[in-house]
Amino acid sequence: MNRVNILIFEDSLEDGKRLSEVLSANHYNVTGIAETFEQALHYIYNNPVDILIIDIFIDSQPEGINLAQTLNANPKTAKPFVFLTNSSDRQVFERAKLTKPFSYLLKPFNELEILYAVEVAIEKFYEQADTITTSTIPVVTNDFIFIKKGKNLKKVWIKDIIYVEVEERYCNVITDSENYLIQISLAKFLPFLELHEFIRTHRNYMVNPTKIIEITLSENTILLHGDHVITLSNKYKDFLSNYKIF
Amino acid sequence: MFPEYSIGNLTSKFLMCLMFTFYMVKSQSIVNNHIREKSNQYAASQNFHKACLFFLNKSDDSTIVYTGRQLDEFKSPTEITNYCHYFRGVSFKQKRMFEEAKNEFNKIPDHFIFKPKILVYFGDIAVEQENYAKALSFYVKLKDHNHFEKFDIDETKILHNIGVCYLHMNDYKNAEMYLVKSMSLQEAKKDTLAMISSYMDIAGMYYEQYLDNLAVPYYKRAYTLSKKVGGNYFIKKNAALNMAVVEENKKNYSKALKYRKESEAWTDSLNNQSRVWSLAQLEKQIAMKSKQSEVNMLKTQNKLEALEKDRMLYITILLSVLLFGGIYFYAQKLKTNRIILIQKKKLDESNTAKDVLFSIVSHDLRSYINSLKSVYSKMRVSADGSDLVRLKDEIRTGSFIADSTHNLLNNLLNWALIQTDQLYFNQEDININHIIEQVVYNYKSLMVEKNIFFENTITGHLKVKADQESFKIILRNILDNAIKYTDCGGKILIYENGLSDNYYLISIEDSGKGMSEQLQNELLEDSKIIMTGKNKSSRGLGLYLCRSLVQKNHGIFKLESKINSGTKITISLLKA
C-alpha cells in the first residue's frame, strides 16, 4: 500500500531486470518494464505510475525523448521521470534536456545512484527541493506524501492516515501498517489534511473522520481504527455538532 | 554801397575765426594741461597720445589723421573717443570745415568736460555760417557761465562775437556796445590779433551805418597791425581787402589795386591750404578703394585656400584611413597567422599525445586482457579440479582486472569527449555528500577487501556548483588511485578542508605510497598528459582528466604528496 510505483521504459532486458531488482529491493513497486512506446503508454493509462525511468535510446531510436514529450504535453499525465542513458554524448543530452528531465542516470549505475536519481526526480517534479534526499522532510502532494523512512522511500495516501500527532517540529503519522515521524510543521501540513476533512480533536491531534469508531464523551476519548485511543479536548468538541448522535 | 556792405560783412565774418585761433594759442594752458594729463593717462593708446601731442601743437591735419586712427581702433574707451571727437571738431573748425566740425561736436555727450567750449565753437560756427540768431542763442547760454578761465574761454571774444551778431542783425546799438567793450578789453590785454579783428569789425559796423569817417581809421589801424603779425592769411587778406574797398570808395584806384593784389596773394595762400586738404581726402578715397579691392581679392583668395585646404584634409583623411586600415588588416593577418601557428603547434602536440596515448592504452589494455586470459585459464584448471577456494580467489582477481580495464576505457572515452568538446556539461547545485556516497559505493567492497579504513566527514547539506557527472569522474579517479596505491590496513579520508569566500575545499587523503616531487611535477605539467620514460603507463590520464574537469567547473585542483606518507588531493569548488 505504501510503495512508490515505478514504470521502467527499457529495451535492454538485462538492464531492465537489474533496475527492477534494485528498485524492488528498495521497497519500490515496479509497475512494469515497457519495451516499446505503445507498451509504455498502455502501462501509464492502466496502472498506477508515480514515476518513470526512461531509457533515451530504445532500439537505437530516441523513443525515450518522445515518451517524455508525450507525458509533458498533458498536465494530467505529467509525471516525474528519470532519463537513463549509456552515452555521455552532448548532442543527445542537449536534445533530452529540452524535455526538462527531472533527473538522469548514466550507465553503468549503482544502487545508490538509481535511488538518488529517483528521489531527485520526485523532489524536482513537486518543486520541494532538499526534502527526501537529505532529511526526513516529506514531499507533500494533495493526495499522498512521500516519506523517507530509513533508506526507503514510501508513499502514504493521506486518506489512509488514521491520525496525526504533532510533536514540536515533527508530526507522527499513524497508519494501519506503519508509523512515520516526519519533519513538517502542522501549519504546513494542515491545508493538505483539511482537504481530506481531517478533524482537530486536540491541540496535538488531527484525526481522519473515516477512521473514528467510537467517541466516549464521559472520558473525552476517541477510539480509532487499529485500537488507537486519543484524547478529545473540550475546546475542539464543536465538530460533534456535525454528526447525528444515535 | 552794396558791394561794400557785402565785403564788410565778409570781413567781419572771417575775422571772428582768426581771432579765436589766436586766443587758443595764447591762453589754453589750463585746457592744455588737462589734455596733457589725459594723454599721459592713456599713454598706452599710441594714436591717442600722438593725437594729443599734435592737437596741442596745433597740427590740425596730423590731429585728424591720428584721432581717425584712434577711432578706427576697435573698442576704444568712451572717454578717449569723446576726446578724439573733440580734437577733430576743433581741428575741422580750424580748417574751416564747419559741417564736419559740427558732426564731430554733436557726437560728444553733454557731460563732457569741455562742453562750454563746444558751445563757444558752435556759436563761432553759426557766426561763420551767417546764422547769427542761432549764434547769439549759443553765446547767450554762455553769458551766464562764470568759469570762463577754467576753460580758457576769452570773455572778450564772446563779447566781440555777440557784437558781431548784433551787427549782422542790424542792431547797431547793441553791436557798438559789445564791440567797443570787447575792443577796450583787448587793448588792455595788448592782444594784437584780436585787436585787428575788433578794429575791422568796428570799422565794418561804422561803414555799414555810412559813418565812413569813423570807419576808415579803424580799417587803417587793422591793416597796419596785420602787417606786423605773421602767418594769418585770413587777417592779412581781409585787412588788405578792406583797405582796397576803402581806397576804391575814395576813387584812389592805384592804391585800391595794390591792396587788392595783396589781398589776392593771401587768398591764394589760403586756397592752397584747403586744396591740400581736399587732395588728401581724394587720395584717401582712392586708397580706400584700392584697399577694399585688395580686401576683396584676399577674401576670394582665402575662400580658394579654404577650399583647397578642405580638399587636402579629405584626401589626408582618406589616405590615413586606407593606411591604418591596411596596417590593421595586416596586423590582424599576422595575429591570425600567429594563432594558427600556435593552434598548429597545439594540434601537433595533442596529435602526438594522442598517438602516444593510443600506444600506451593499447599496451595497457593488452596487458589487462592478457591477465584476464591467464586468470580464465587458471579458473578452468581450478574448475576442472573442483578447487572452489582457488576458483573464488581467481574470480575476484578477474573482476578486479575487469574493473581496472573498465576504468581505463571510461577515462579514455571521457578524454576523447573532452578533446572533441562533446562532454555533456551542466553546472548546477549538487549535494556533494550524496555524490561521494554514490561513487564510494562502488569501491566499498574493494576497500573492505584491502582492509582500508574509509571515512567521509563531509556534512550532508554541503552544496557546490558543479557538473554532477564530471564531479563523479574526478572522484572515481582519485579514489581509484588512492585505493590502488594504499597498502592493506591503510586509510582514506574525505573531509572538508576549510572554506574561502567563494569555495568549498574538499580533501581526499590517503596513507599510500605517495609520489616523488619529480613525478608530481611531471604529472602536473600541462602539455604532458601521458607519462613517458621507463614507467610507461596510462597513469597520467586519470590525473589529467581530474585537472581539466576541475578547471572546467571553475574549481582549483591541488596535489600534495610525500613518498611513503601518502597523497592529499584538494579540490576547491564554487559554493552553491
What is the element layout, followed by pairings?
The complex is a heterodimer of chains A (246) and B (576).
Chain A: E1 4-9, H1 13-25, E2 28-34, H2 37-46, E3 51-55, H3 63-73, E4 81-85, H4 90-97, E5 103-106, H5 111-125, E6 139-140, E7 144-149, E8 152-157, E9 163-167, E10 170-174, E11 179-183, H6 186-195, E12 199-202, E13 205-207, E14 212-216, E15 221-224, E16 228-231
Parallel strand pairs in A: 1-2, 1-3, 3-4, 4-5
Antiparallel strand pairs in A: 6-7, 7-8, 9-10, 9-13, 10-11, 12-13, 14-15, 15-16
Chain B: H1 2-27, H2 29-41, H3 46-56, H4 60-72, H5 78-94, H6 98-106, H7 115-128, H8 132-143, H9 155-168, H10 172-189, H11 192-208, H12 212-228, H13 233-249, H14 253-384, H15 388-419, E1 427-431, H16 432-449, E2 453-456, E3 463-467, H17 468-485, E4 491-499, E5 503-510, H18 517-524, H19 539-552, E6 556-562, E7 566-574
Parallel strand pairs in B: 2-4
Antiparallel strand pairs in B: 1-3, 4-5, 5-7, 6-7
Task: Tell me about this structure.
The complex is a heterodimer of chains A (246) and B (576). Chain A is built from 6 helices and 16 strands. With 246 residues, chain A is α/β, with parallel strands linked by helices. Chain A folds into 2 domains: 4-125, 3-Layer(aba) Sandwich (Rossmann fold), CATH 3.40.50; 160-242, LytTr DNA-binding domain (OB fold (Dihydrolipoamide Acetyltransferase, E2P)). The longest helix of chain A has 15 residues, at 111-125. The two termini of chain A are 34 Å apart. The model of chain A has no long low-confidence stretch (mean pLDDT 88). With 576 residues, chain B is an alpha+beta fold. Chain B has helices at residues 2-27, 29-41, 46-56, 60-72, 78-94, 98-106, 115-128, 132-143, 155-168, 172-189, 192-208, 212-228, 233-249, 253-384, 388-419, 432-449, 468-485, 517-524, 539-552, and strands at 427-431, 453-456, 463-467, 491-499, 503-510, 556-562, 566-574. In chain B, β6 (556-562) and β7 (566-574) form a beta hairpin. Chain B is rod-shaped and about 190 Å long. The relative contact order of chain B is 0.05.
